């Protein structure tokens, strides 16, 4: 008789083995590995039953209080931010800022309206769905762009957008939950602002503080790491120092109800750009790259595993419709609106209509929506919020389909439309 604990470790070992096979298999068929991981999760989860659905949900959203999803996101964002190029960010700052503010709000509201109209749920629930799928994914954009010849202004803007819109997506989710359950402990910090200065002004102040404070902390800690290493020369133990400080940022800021991800991104960007590039820093980046890939693999396998056959049968048509509308209606509306506003008063228009069309058709959803998709349901269970408990599964199933379909579709058509739409500036 196998004990429950032993069975859980069997499942963890099985998840890691599946992840190891998924990457080389995806290379053989020349597609991004994320759909392969999710497909493996579906096959070995709801179809064959090797991965238990309730255990997968626990591991993804509740393990260690916050879940593998959030902990993995910490590692992923820290590693990805090593690749931020300050020169490109400065050059295309206004465009990135437009997409990450106006564009994300339009996405959240537009997708929320569509979700509410199609499913019949209240708009408050629809807005949660829209907020969750508003961030785009650098993990699938970067390998896709490597396959085609991409102009620096386009790739720099889209990758910059995807790196910086993750914290904003989390903040929009906070706003959405606060509209439904302001008494929830999950949004107590936001409720404090909105109850004193109003919802709109409170949202703006909350967003600024949630971005500025952790970003400054992250920048400071990044330079502190570099200074300490010059003084003490940690050699291979620089890995322990950086990982420890990143986890400390996450834990400490979360304890004060401050979004930690701007701090983590800022620390990774400073370390990636201002370290001395010695062999030990190269090992630090290589270690975090491998750790990031492993975190992504586990998360996407778990996502496939938390789906049930009944959910897939009942909601696959809904998922396809939502995905198509997000890709070909909501995303273009957000991109054209935000870039047109910032380009309106410029003497030189940076992006012509063909380039904007390409950018509007590139916006795969990925790791952050996956992690956030279970938050409404978990918050509902923790704080006994019936509306979140009722609609939480619908949200994470719908998000799962949107992520899977947008990644697969855009992996196929982005190289094709790139050849036809991207010309000279």
UniProtKB/TrEMBL annotation:
Q: How does it sit in the membrane?
A: Multi-pass membrane protein
Q: Which spans are transmembrane here?
A: 6-25, 32-51, 57-80, 92-115, 163-181, 215-232, 238-271, 291-309, 315-336, 357-379, 394-416
Where do the coiled-coil regions begin and end? none
Keywords linked to the UniProt accession: Antiport, Ion transport, Membrane, Transmembrane, Transmembrane helix, Transport
Pfam families listed in its UniProt record = Na_H_Exchanger (PF00999)
Instruction: Give the source's domain of life in one word.
Output: Archaea
Please tell me whether the keyword Transport is annotated for this protein: yes
Ranges of residues in domain Cation/H+ exchanger transmembrane = 17-416
Q: Which GO terms describe its biological process?
A: proton transmembrane transport
Identify the GO cellular component terms for this protein: plasma membrane
The molecule here is called Na(+)/H(+) antiporter
